[in-house]
Amino acid sequence: MNGMTAVVEAEGLTKFYGQRRGLEDLDLAIQPGEVFGYLGPNGSGKTTTIRLLLDVIRPTRGRATVLGLDPGDAKVRARIGYLPGELALAGRERAGQYLRFLADARGGVAQARIDELAERLEADLSVPMGKLSKGNKQKVGLIQAFMHRPEFLILDEPTSGLDPLVQQEFLAMVREVRADGRTVLMSSHVLAEVEHVSDRVGIVRSGRLVAVEEVAALREKAVRRVELHFDAPVPPEAFEGLPGVRDLRAAGASVTCTIDGRPDALIKAAARFTVVHLVSAEPDLEEIFLTYYSGEEDQHARVGSAKPA
Amino acid sequence: MPALVAQSLREYRRMLIGWTIGISVFMSIYIGIYANIKESPEVYGPAALAKYPGALKDLMGGLADFTSGPGFLQSVVYQLFVPMLFIACACGIGNRAIAQPEESGLLELTVTLPIERVRLLLQRFGAGLLGLLAAVALTYLLAWAIATNVGVGVPADRILAAHTGVFLLALFFGTLTLAVGAATGRKGLASAVAGVWTIGGYAVVTIGQNVSAISWLKWVSPFHYYLEGKPIYQGFPVGDYLVLAGATAVLLLTAALAFDRRDVGV
Q1: Which residues of B touch A105 (CB under 8 A)?
Q2: Of residues B86, B94, B67, B93, the one with CA closest to residue B181
Q3: Per the domain annotation, does B48 fall within a domain?
Q4: Rounded mean pLDDT of A111-130?
Q5: CA B60 to chain centre
Q6: pLDDT tens digits for A7-51?
Q7: Most buried one in A267, A296, B171, B240, CB count within 10 A?
Q8: An example Gene Ontology cellular component term from the record (chain B) (predicted)?
Q9: Dist CA A52 CA A15 (whole Å)
Q10: Do the chains contact at A17 and B105, CB–CB below 8 Å?
Q11: Would B206 be classed as within a structural domain?
Q12: Complex-level ipTM
């Protein structure tokens, strides 16, 4: 309806389980049409956030709206597709029958749509749910999340248990959702799983959102190891003090360093000499991810509040 | 029928069928025995009285009129065993409605469907009610058929009155289990509360009725509102049954409100 409203808007969203912090002071806005990767290790608050947005649990304080409505409004859940992080499916009932129930409870989804998704993910729906393997359970979970073409998909650890080929198919499905202008929030504890489809990533740790970055900007921040080889020894001073260049080691005709973000200054400095060989490792977003984490950890250590996980 | 009611009935089906078969077998055997007792009441009456010591006799409802048709039906079928079997069945369903799927994680997808919490709980309850009603109806027809066959001599409407009482008792305890489970999400606690109230409630109105220190407790025993009116002898104790039904409604309302306010699956 109103395309300008944020799909998720959280202000000071906080959840304590007794004394234990689940999530504290989350401020977050997810815009329509974006794929938002929500990253953090297990127990960091990802699932708490997701379950707050779905009204499975209630905030200790703060507020959130989803698709412009209060999460407690059941109508909003008709417009959401949800894959739980720990999907439980059990019993003798066949997966197809259970999907039929979920489809009917959501006001009806064509059987052809369910069959199409099952074929795409190569899921066998005639198996009793208690006998499904972890990967097949995850497929059933994905089918029920995607089948009613929801405006907003909330996927908690969607790729866990999927083999690489099915993962690719799943990522293609996410891209299609984005191409439709629909919105996705997907969590993971591994950046590599979400970086290729996400527009932005948020990093949550110990119940706090520590960073929100555009994936493109994250790539710019990427720590890259670079090796330059020249035809003759070069003066180390020529490379000292360049913006973004760290861990510089100049020895004879070769220079190695790490660069944060753009390699521009380094390239321009090197261009004054004859470069015979250049090695640059692919930017490892995982490493930046860890940089954020270790930063957070240092802070904890300083205030002396770090607790063993 | 709402999708969730149909789905819930599918979930309860096996359990309901199992209990219905079990209760039917029990009734067939025990009501059938009356054919022998009718033949020689002078043997079985004193034998039954001699077999059980005083307290146990109280627990079985006195056994005074054991050799008459109504007395037999009351003592053997409607006093203790069939109510307890139906209560166990109803408590099982009461736990399956919320607490059990919540503990196993199966409720997560259900609560994120576009169904309000209160409606979700009422539909889970409604399916249990329908299932229990079907089990009660089938076993009533069977009880009536066998009782007629062996000549127990209790009219159909008196059997119906007793069977309705069993249904209301079971519904009360099933709803109690549902309510504790809906309020706490813990099926063990729900079973414990229902179990203690069932055993305690029955003890209070039988062996406890002559102990003045605890006899007042009969007012909080659901069995009081079932046994006191002697439905097999006197037909429907309408007022007592309304108390049971009203208490069940209060429990259901409590369950709905508690579930609506609560964090699920934490």
Answers
A1: 2-4, 7, 113-115
A2: B94
A3: no
A4: 95
A5: 17
A6: 999 999 999 999 999 999 999 999 999 999 999 888 899 999 999
A7: B171
A8: plasma membrane
A9: 8
A10: no
A11: yes
A12: 0.89
